[in-house]
Amino acid sequence: MDEKTKRAAAAILLAIGDVIKELGEVPSGHLYARLMGHMSLDSYNKCIAALKDAGLVTESNHVLRWVG
């Protein structure tokens, strides 16, 4: 992955994290419904997994919560 692609991926991840942080919690399906015209479900799931792996987001009953 080149630097430009890495920066773009990081920006997308940051934007999704910011939305969840701003809302506090959001149903994952609702969030993806807003993003589905811009990214695949696989890409969305990878972003959410990265945020969860970083300890920034938790998911329970398909609801994403910001834990920062």
Description:
The chain is an alpha+beta fold. The chain has a single domain (about 5-65), classed as Winged helix-like DNA-binding domain superfamily/Winged helix DNA-binding domain (Arc Repressor Mutant, subunit A). Helices cover about 60% and strands about 15% of the residues. It is built from three helices and three strands, in the order H-E-H-H-E-E. The protein has helices spanning about 5-25, 30-35, 40-55; strands at about 25, 55-60, 65. The protein has a three-stranded antiparallel sheet with strand order 1-3-2. Helix 1 crosses helix 3. The longest helix is centred in the first third of the chain and has 21 residues, at about 5-25. It is globular. The termini are far apart. The model has no long low-confidence stretch (mean pLDDT about 95).
Radius of gyration of CA atoms, rounded to a whole number: 12 Å
Adjacency order of strands in the biggest sheet: 1-3-2
Biggest beta-sheet profile? 3 strands, antiparallel
Helix/strand order: HEHHEE
Classify the helix fraction into a percent range. Answer: 55-70%
Number of domains: 1
Low-confidence stretches: none
The proportion of strand residues reads 15-25%
Q: End-to-end distance, in Å? A: 27 Å
CATH class identity: Mainly Alpha
Question: Number of DSSP helices?
Answer: 3
